[in-house]
Amino acid sequence: MGFGVVSLLDAAFRRAFTSAGLRPGSAAVDADTTVHFWAHRSLLRPSSTAATSATDQNQPRRPVVVLVHGFGPGPTWQWAAQVGPLSRHFDLVVPTLLFFGASRTRAPARSEASQAAAVAALLTGGRHLPGLGPGSGRRTVHVVGASYGGIVAYHLARALLQHGGGGVAVGKVVVCDSDVTKGAEDDRALAARGGVEEVTELMVPADTKTMRRLTALSFHRPPKYMPECIARDLLRKSLEGRREEKIELIKAMTTAGGSQLTPLPLEVLIIWGEFDQIFPLEKAYKVKEKLGEKATVKVFPNSGHLPSQEEPKLFNRVILEFLLKPSSSNGSATSTLTTAAVK
Asked: What region holds the AB hydrolase-1 domain (predicted)?
């Protein structure tokens, strides 16, 4: 398997999660749907158990951050650089979206709203995450999503707001290079940039040649060289034998140019890479218009579509500053960051 490079990376990323205090779990959120996830160990046990009462009962309950991944390899690959810094301040929940990894459903729905509904059921079901269940106190839950995961994050925030009550109070939302206003014209333009007929051919590549095109579009500074054996192994890791289902997810997206979007009554941070070729920078400002006056845009000048991976220190600092600062009623803003900000 690619001289073991991909399997070694997979083990290293899982180790980053366990070192941050996360543990894997699986929940049947309804009769048809099973969601795999990683969660902080404190969320996996009831707060009233004898084991926790002596040490934890007098401790303030930390806010929760939900990290929602996009297409590509699973969440351990996409959030490995974030879980350590974030776990120092928050309890984390990192779901694996349906048709990625071990998460699956027999239900026919494939929209990003159905993805969000499954994650919302995980968070609010009580028995799945006892630390968020009845008797655990009301927790603030922030939602962070990247690319496709950011579109799911928008719907997740709406689902949690509609759920109301229980142990979850929705906090802030971060969407990173996530075009919630995407329409058919955007898909055609992306397909043209990727040199394919249909956008599904690019986003769910069938061969390493197309995967290399996707990588070149995703990164501002793509790898200069990748051996073919490693590329094949990475493609298998990304598809996980679910290519047809992932194509269905893209075809079922309901963004429809943003016509169905309504502003969120929450503070929203919109992060965008200046050189994003998947969702070009101008889309950040269209997203801001749709998400309302509480939305703020921050542009990362040395990044493409994946600033969490290309500029992880800057990304982590920006996320932490946004999530840790007291909520504000001030208006929206737009700014461009510099790498000097992390020094």
From this structure: 65-317
Cβ-based neighbours of 221, under 8 Å, separated by 6 or more: 304, 310
Kindly give the residue spans of alpha helices, DSSP state H, lying in 25-164.
Answer: 50-56, 75-87, 112-124, 148-163
Q: Are strands 295-300 and 268-273 parallel, antiparallel or unpaired?
A: parallel
pLDDT tens, position by position, 191-207: 999 999 999 999 999 99
Which residues on neighbouring strands pair with residue 144, listed in sequence order? 67, 174
- Reported as half-sphere exposure (CB side, CA atoms, 13 A), residue 234 has a value of 19
- In the three-class reduction of DSSP (H, G, I as helix; E, B as strand; rest coil), residue 24 is classed as strand
DSSP letter assigned to residue 263: -
Three-state SS for 271?
strand
pLDDT in tens, 65-81: 999 999 999 999 999 99
Q: What is the DSSP letter of 330?
A: -
pTM here is 0.91
Beta strands in 41-167 (DSSP E): 64-68, 91-95, 104-105, 139-146
Q: What is the Cα–Cα distance from 282 to 269, expressed in whole angstroms?
A: 16
Between 269 and 335, the higher pLDDT residue: 269
- Tallying the residues shown for the chain, one arrives at 343
Angstrom distance (rounded) from CA 122 to CA 26: 9
**DSSP H or E segment with residue 80:** helix 75-87
Strand-pair category, 91-95 with 33-40 = antiparallel
Structural contact between residues 65 and 1, judged by C-beta atoms closer than 8 angstroms: no
CA distance 147 to 158: 18
Q: What is the pLDDT of residue 56?
A: 47
Q: Which residues contact 137 (CB under 8 A, 6 or more apart)?
A: 47, 61, 167
